[in-house]
Amino acid sequence: MNSLNSILLEGNLVRDPETGETAKGTKFCRFSIASNRFYKQEGSRVDEVSYFDVEVWSKLAENCYANLEKGRGVRVVGRLKQDRWQDEEGKGRTKVKIVGEHVEFKPQFKKNEEEPAESAVEEDKEPVF
Fold this sequence. Notes:
The protein is 8% helix and 53% strand. It is mostly beta strands. Strands 1-3-4-6-5 form a 5-stranded mixed beta barrel. It starts with 6 loop residues before the first strand and ends in a 24-residue tail after the last strand. Residues 118-129 have low confidence and may be disordered.
């Protein structure tokens, strides 16, 4: 029986997405998002920013690469994945990333506008992939 491994994260891209494909031709897209939160401590507001690496695959990768850019807001539903490897000195290294299984693009607004800017996603389709 698999253990529960699920994450829901919302934030903004900190740079444009990168794309590529595996040796077998499977496409992937990688992007990083910043997620902000704040809390009060001793009567003052404390801002906390966390950065997360996200990786998506196949058709979702194509859609994300075509529609995302630095600053765009996203909501990602996925799972955590831990990569393990040895560096040049033989030390064990690990990195945890998010494998996105569902990505929702947040509306884009132009400055001083209340209506969302035109989205790259066709209007008759939901902007959810």
